[in-house]
Design brief:
The protein is mainly α. The protein has nine helices and no strands. The chain has helices at residues 12-50, 53-69, 71-76, 79-98, 113-118, 125-139, 144-155, 160-167, 171-193. Helix 8 crosses helix 9 (171-193). The longest helix is centred in the first third of the chain and has 39 residues, at 12-50.
Length: 199
């Protein structure tokens, strides 16, 4: 008696699961590559927005989680712009929850003499980071909205339109906040340069 071999069709759900697993793996790999590239820039932006290294790390984590969840939509456009906007929105959410800015002690600011001493950097780094420290301290004196606009527009060098899209505000609001923020920043920096006491 001869047994006839019947061709076995692959189990469709198994094939579909394998394809989904491959897609998920490539999505994860793609997002991991994006995250490795974008994380330093997002961390710097977050720190400039909130003035605190720990809160900046929190904001970046929140922004990256939200970006991962919406990765198909984010990668269809500009993923970095999507992550920046998510970061700015997370900062706004945090501000709304806390309703006031709590600034860190000057010795906790990255680049301060205490922080550099903890990392083993000598006094030769003082001059290299002095201007940045003055700028960051001046930025902390701006309102949160002005600080966000100034950081995105002038530190990250985004166009007014990109800033408006990232913050979900009108172009006029960006122009107004940028002009007022720069004027206030100039006043604070002039006050600091004249040896004035920071408030």
């Amino acid at each position: 008696m001869e047994v006839e071999e019947v061709p076995v069709e692959p189990d469709v759900p198994v094939v579909a699961r394998l394809t989904d697993a491959r897609r998920q793996r490539s999505r994860d790999e793609e997002f991991s590559a994006f995250m490795a590239e974008a994380e330093p820039l997002l961390t710097r932006t977050a720190w400039l927005l909130c003035g605190d290294a720990h809160r900046a790390e929190e904001l970046v984590q929140q922004a990256l989680v939200r970006t991962y969840v919406a990765w198909p939509r984010a990668r269809a456009g500009d993923p970095l712009a999507y992550a920046r906007r998510t970061l700015a929105n997370a900062r706004i959410d945090m501000w709304r929850r806390r309703r006031r800015e709590v600034l860190v002690a000057p010795d906790d600011v990255p680049g301060s003499p205490v922080a550099r001493a903890e990392r083993g950097q000598g006094p030769g780094h003082d001059h290299a980071h002095a201007e940045r420290d003055v700028l960051v301290r001046a930025l902390t004196r701006l309102s949160p909205q002005r600080r966000r606009v100034v950081v995105l527009r002038y530190v990250l060098d985004l166009s007014e339109q990109q800033v408006a899209e990232d913050l979900d505000v009108s172009l006029g609001a960006v122009k107004s906040a940028a002009a007022r923020g720069l004027r206030q920043l100039r006043e604070v920096l002039a006050e600091t340069a004249d040896g004035g006491e920071e408030k």
